[in-house]
Structures are given as C-alpha cells and as structure tokens.
Amino acid sequence: QKEVEQNSGPLSVPEGAIASLNCTYSDRVSQSFFWYRQYSGKSPELIMSIYSNGDKEDGRFTAQLNKASQYVSLLIRDSQPSDSATYLCVRAAGNKLTFGGGTRVLVKP
Amino acid sequence: DADVTQTPRNRITKTGKRIMLECSQTKGHDRMYWYRQDPGLGLRLIYYSFDVKDINKGEISDGYSVSRQAQAKFSLSLESAIPNQTALYFCATSVSGTTTNEQFFGPGTRLTVL
User: Fold this and answer.
1) CA distances (Å), B76 to each of A106, B32, B39, in order?
2) B59: nearest CA partner in chain A
3) What is the pLDDT of residues A80-101, one digit of tens each?
4) pLDDT at B104 over 80
5) Residue A13 main-chain phi, psi, to 5 deg
6) B53-94 pLDDT, tens per residue?
7) A8 and B40 in contact by Cβ < 8 A?
8) Helix or strand or coil: residue A72?
9) What pLDDT sits at residue B24?
10) Does the beta-carbon distance from A97 to B101 stay under 8 Å?
11) What one-character DSSP code corresponds to residue B39?
12) pLDDT at residue A29 above 90?
C-alpha cells in the first residue's frame, strides 16, 4: 500500500460545481497535511494546510481531515476553468513530506 | 522577489554522461531538497540538506549525489546518466523553526536521457 493514495482522475467537473478530492494515508502518526496545486509543466504551489481533525476553509477551498479514518479531502466550490490542474495530497511527518500521485481535475465551461 | 531558481530548465543528454543540475535561492531558507517527478508517481525525495554541513539521503538516492556549496546553493549530480533517470526534477526550500513545514519549489528541470 502506498503511503499516500489518491485517485489519479481525471475528475471532470462542470464550471460552478463543487470538485471533491479524496486522499488516504497509511501512517497513523502523520501530523500535518497539505494540498498542493500543480499546473501542467509547472512547479507545485501550496493552497491549503490542515493539522487537526475537522474542516478548514480558505476562500473557495475547504480541507477536511479525519485522522481516525486516515483520510483527508479537498473541496473546491464554484469551480472555475482556472482550477484545472493536478492536486497533490501531501503528508508531513516530522521534516519529511510524502506526496501522493495527484488527482487531475478538469473544469469544463 | 525572493525566489528559487533552477538551471538548466531543459536538458537532453546521452547514457553515461555526467550531468549537474543547479539550484539557487534568495529566500534565506536553510533547508533545501531535490525531488524527481514521474507521471502518476508524485514527487519523490532524492536528497535533502538542513544546512551547509548536513546532507541526507531521501527515498531514491541511488545514482545521484549532491553538493551544498553554500546556504543558497544546492546541486544535484548524475554521475553516469541512464534512461530511467528521465524525469522532471524539482528543487525546493523551507525554513526551520516553523510548524507549517511549507516547501517552496523551483520551476523544475526537464531531463531526458537518451
């Protein structure tokens, strides 16, 4: 089992709809999680971080963490074509980051 | 603007050649990292350095070496390149003493080994 698993997609979402991305992890001692967005051919950029159970909202993005079930999710509300990218789920344990394979999101006008 | 830069941005080379990828940063961060990205596999850590005298292997260090010439510079070398080292390589930086552990990435180097 991979340490951080994501569905590779593509996740096709109509413009204005909610995109829901899921991520599961295998290590119960994981402390922090990040969501990075990566446009094709570009470098990853941090969009959300979450450290405790529950929801965290930032603009159109909501991250959810459930440590008991070992999953973390990202919701993108009012999806825009500019949200079309690959979203990387990242687990932080100490100083080490472990990246999931990414979920490709396509927002169709 | 404080930034992370990588050179070259693209490189095509032949099997057996020695290649060096360079990373520089003006962020003043003490920690630097080298990753490679392959389709569907996410980013995998090759080497990381927490300061000039600290070098650590990541999960896929075989076939690679690094040099931390200064706090701002971290180079990755492929002593004898092979085709399965064809990938997108990213340098990243972070600062110690924070709880966020956010890493900032350079623009990447696309390496093709023929």
Assistant:
1) 34, 11, 21
2) A98
3) 999 999 999 999 877 778 899 9
4) yes
5) -130, 135
6) 999 999 899 999 999 999 999 999 999 999 999 999 999 999
7) yes
8) strand
9) 97
10) yes
11) T
12) no
Six-digit token string for A41: 């051919």
In angstroms, the Cα distances linking B2 to B5, B89, B109 are 10, 20, 19
Task: Classify strands B73-78 and B65-70 as parallel, antiparallel or unpaired.
Answer: antiparallel
Confirm or reject contact between A40 and chain B (CB < 8 A).
Answer: no
Rounded (10°) CA dihedral B2, B6, B9, B15: -170
> Using CB atoms, which residue from B40, B90, B101 is nearest to A95?
B101
Question: Mean pLDDT, to the nearest integer, of A9-33?
Answer: 90
Does A28 touch chain B if contact means CB atoms closer than 8 Å? no
- Residue A8 falls in which region: left (phi positive, over 0), alpha (psi -120 to 50) or beta: alpha
Predicted pLDDT at A27:
78
User: Which of B41, B56, B93, B101 is the best substitution to test chain A (most A C-beta atoms within 10 A)?
Assistant: B101
